[in-house]
């Protein structure tokens, strides 16, 4: 399935999420979930927003523990009703089954309640793994995700819906990403003033997004970062559309990583500048059967 | 010096590289027709790259055997020395991968008309580099030189760049042949001092580890001097590769860009204790080889690449076309 994956949707850093956002977090790493949840809840509390959290794979006390570990004591917020950490069964399945429109209406009402109670807004986050269980109405999840866009757009409210990529299928992740206006950006694997390499999921697939410059200054870090990819399951897409520059050693590092992938797995380089596609050909990197290259459309 | 081609293989598994110096259509056909027919008999693959006139002559003379021969136009094939060598490698690789033919026979007639002195010198080096680049390939190449059209000096060089000469259906060794890797340095050639044919002032940048500054300088200067956006991209990529090499050897270098006729010429110079082989980058890097990819790609991205070491300075000169 060597389809072209354009940079669709928006990837948003967690510290830049604000009112009106309805984003999904697709993650495959517990530490990543903890980082995003902690930052999101913490920012909501400090901005005077009401925060509702619906845990499923985690126990509520575990989530509260993440806050305490970061120096945020949630007890006052819990007492005043600013913070509620409960379970998905309470939040999404309060009607015995999942009713997409009823839950969307409830959220709408929660926005008004939060404002009436004097909070500056509402933020909501839920672990969506309940939808994988044999729950009546779980097939309405997609309908729900589309419907709640209207609850948040332009409102003093935001949401992050959490999807564990180890549990949801690629098709389900693709579907949910299409229904959310944006995605929470995962923590960069490498970050300095010259080069930023960020993992992500696009169209349900593992993607590595490379921004900045790969040259003699950054090649060692870039090659080391690519080692991470070897441990990922399945195919990996590498988005090179935001590169300012990459030299031959950088392209070779990608080619050599592709060559080292276990049998049956492939690396797909997408959005590569036409000149660089020519270089890949000249250097005969395209002889590597586990490597595919798709050129950026000429502007 | 060790044999760059590795261990010796039986002669049919190694390169045969011959010049065919001819002064008439009859002389051309007397060598090329038996070469092709013999190749068909032996089950070799056949590729003929020549002029339109010679293609017509050979097609007619080969009669039924013509279907076993692939014809290409010299104008298409011989664009730049680097791209011609790269294309040749891809053909040979494909041949080896398919494994259908025992050997590959090529008739390749380079173009000499309209080449200036630097181009002629580099195409001569290309002919010499073939001996190294394809040394271990099961290929038999005949390069025709038409004495009616090609300057005498080029013919004299053809005798130096080809180990053998084809005469009719027979061959003899070329007494003038000079090994490309000869320790006498016969193929070493000082590059011309830039002001000799340069127009206007040179743009000069002394650089160290900050190659971002080099790339910006090259892009701005090349664009201002009239190089196309595509050409600017190729030059920036190429200079970055050469400058990266320079940093590994000298830690710093000097970039000089100026116009020379219809080309932009860009010198990357760095102090170097060791001489750099003139044919570097004419051979594709082998599997698992860490170094050598840079110049191989650069030679195929630029019109001409010259390499020279003198007085402790290695200079790589890149030529790109103006629009």
Can I get a quick summary?
Chain A is an alpha/beta fold and 299 residues long. Chain A has eleven helices and 13 strands.
Task: Give the topology.
The complex is a heterodimer of chains A (299) and B (323).
Chain A: E1 10-12, E2 22-27, H1 30-46, E3 50-55, H2 60-69, H3 75-80, E4 83-87, H4 88-91, H5 100-116, E5 122-127, H6 141-147, H7 149-152, E6 157-164, H8 170-179, E7 182-184, E8 190-191, E9 195-202, E10 205-214, H9 219-230, E11 236-246, H10 248-260, E12 267-272, H11 274-282, E13 291-295
Parallel strand pairs in A: 1-7, 2-6, 2-7, 3-4, 3-5, 5-6, 10-11, 11-12, 12-13
Antiparallel strand pairs in A: 8-9, 9-10
Helix pairs in contact in A: 5-6, 9-10
Chain B: E1 16-22, H1 25-42, E2 45-50, H2 52-62, E3 69-73, H3 74-77, H4 81-98, E4 104-108, H5 117-133, E5 139-146, H6 152-161, E6 164-167, E7 170-173, E8 199-207, H7 211-224, H8 229-250, E9 253-260, E10 263-271, H9 293-301, E11 304-310, E12 313-321
Parallel strand pairs in B: 1-5, 1-6, 2-3, 2-4, 4-5
Antiparallel strand pairs in B: 6-7, 8-9, 9-10, 10-12, 11-12
Helix pairs in contact in B: 1-2, 4-9, 5-6, 7-8, 8-9
InterPro entries (chain A): MEDS_domain, MlaB-like_STAS, STAS_dom, STAS_dom_sf
Pfam families (chain A): MEDS (PF14417), STAS_2 (PF13466)
Protein name (chain A): MEDS domain-containing protein
The H-and-E topology of chain A, N to C, reads as: EEHEHHEHHEHHEHEEEEHEHEHE
Please give the number of β-strands of chain B: 12
CATH topology (level 3) name of the largest domain in chain A: Rossmann fold
Instruction: Summarize the main sheet of chain A.
Output: 7 strands, parallel
Question: Which CATH-level-2 architecture of the largest domain in chain B?
Answer: 3-Layer(aba) Sandwich
Roughly how many Å is the radius of gyration of chain A? 21 Å
Q: What would the principal axes of the Cα set say about the shape of chain B?
A: elongated
Categorize the overall geometry of chain A. Answer: elongated
Total tally of structural domains of chain B? 2
Name the pair of protein chains with the most residues at their interface, and give those residue counts.
Answer: A-B, 17 and 23 residues
| CATH H-tier superfamily of the largest domain in chain A | P-loop containing nucleotide triphosphate hydrolases
Protein name (chain B): Sensor histidine kinase
GO molecular function, one term (chain B): protein serine/threonine kinase activity
Keywords (chain B): Kinase, Serine/threonine-protein kinase, Transferase
InterPro entries (chain B): Anti-sigma-factor_SerPK, HATPase_C_sf, HATPase_dom, MEDS_domain, RsbA-like_anti_sig
């Amino acid at each position: 399935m060597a389809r072209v994956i354009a940079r669709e949707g928006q990837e948003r850093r967690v510290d830049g999420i604000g009112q009106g956002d309805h984003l999904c977090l697709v993650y495959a790493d517990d530490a990543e979930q903890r980082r995003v949840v902690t930052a999101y809840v913490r920012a909501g509390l400090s901005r005077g927003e009401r925060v509702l959290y619906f845990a499923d794979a985690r126990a509520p006390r575990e989530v509260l523990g993440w806050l305490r570990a970061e120096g945020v004591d949630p007890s006052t917020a819990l007492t005043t009703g600013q913070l509620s950490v409960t379970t998905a069964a309470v939040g999404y399945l309060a009607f015995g089954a999942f009713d997409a429109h009823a839950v969307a209406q409830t959220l709408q009402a929660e926005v008004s309640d939060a404002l009436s109670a004097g909070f500056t807004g509402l933020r909501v986050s839920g672990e969506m793994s309940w939808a994988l269980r044999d729950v009546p109405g779980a097939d309405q999840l997609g309908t729900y995700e589309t419907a709640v866009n209207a609850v948040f757009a332009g409102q003093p409210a935001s949401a992050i819906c959490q999807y564990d990529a180890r549990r949801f299928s690629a098709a389900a992740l693709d579907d949910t990403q299409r229904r959310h206006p944006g995605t929470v950006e995962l923590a960069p694997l490498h970050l300095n003033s010259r080069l930023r390499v960020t993992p992500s999921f696009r169209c349900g697939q593992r993607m590595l997004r490379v921004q900045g410059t790969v040259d003699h200054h950054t090649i060692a870090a870039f090659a080391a970062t690519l080692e991470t990819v070897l441990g990922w399951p399945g195919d990996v897409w590498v988005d090179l559309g935001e590169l300012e520059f990459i030299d031959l050693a950088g392209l070779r590092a990608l080619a050599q990583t592709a060559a080292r992938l276990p049998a049956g797995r492939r690396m797909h380089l997408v959005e590569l500048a036409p000149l660089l596609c020519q270089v890949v050909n000249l250097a005969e990197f395209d002889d590597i059967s586990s490597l595919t290259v798709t050129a950026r459309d000429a502007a | 010096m060790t044999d760059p081609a590795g261990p010796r293989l039986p002669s049919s598994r190694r390169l045969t590289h011959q010049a065919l110096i001819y002064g008439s259509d009859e002389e051309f056909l007397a060598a090329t027709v038996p070469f092709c027919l013999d190749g068909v008999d032996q089950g070799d693959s056949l590729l003929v790259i020549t002029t339109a006139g010679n293609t017509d002559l050979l097609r007619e003379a080969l009669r039924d055997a013509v279907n076993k021969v692939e014809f290409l136009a010299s104008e298409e094939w011989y664009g730049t020395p680097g791209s011609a060598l790269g294309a040749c490698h891809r053909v040979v690789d494909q041949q080896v991968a398919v494994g259908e033919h025992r050997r590959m026979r090529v008739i390749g007639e380079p173009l000499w008309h309209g080449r200036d002195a630097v181009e002629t010198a580099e195409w001569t080096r290309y002919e010499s580099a073939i001996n190294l680049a394809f040394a271990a390939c099961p290929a038999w190449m005949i390069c025709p030189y038409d004495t009616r059209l090609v300057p005498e000096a080029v013919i004299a060089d053809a005798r130096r760049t080809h180990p053998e000469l084809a005469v009719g259906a027979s061959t003899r060794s070329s007494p003038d042949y000079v090994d490309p890797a000869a320790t006498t340095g016969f193929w070493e050639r000082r590059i011309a001092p830039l002001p000799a044919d340069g127009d206007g002032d040179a743009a000069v940048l002394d650089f160290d580890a900050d190659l971002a500054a080099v790339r910006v300088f090259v892009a701005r200067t090349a664009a201002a001097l009239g190089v196309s956006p595509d050409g600017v991209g190729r030059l920036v990529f190429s200079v970055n590769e050469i400058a990266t090499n320079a940093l590994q050897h000298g830690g710093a270098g000097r970039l000089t860009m100026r116009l020379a006729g219809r080309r932009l010429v860009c010198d990357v110079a760095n102090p170097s204790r060791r001489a750099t082989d003139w044919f570097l980058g004419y051979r594709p890097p082998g599997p698992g080889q860490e170094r050598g990819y840079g110049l191989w790609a650069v030679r195929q991205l630029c019109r001409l690449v010259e390499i020279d070491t003198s007085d402790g300075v290695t200079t790589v000169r890149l030529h790109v076309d103006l629009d």
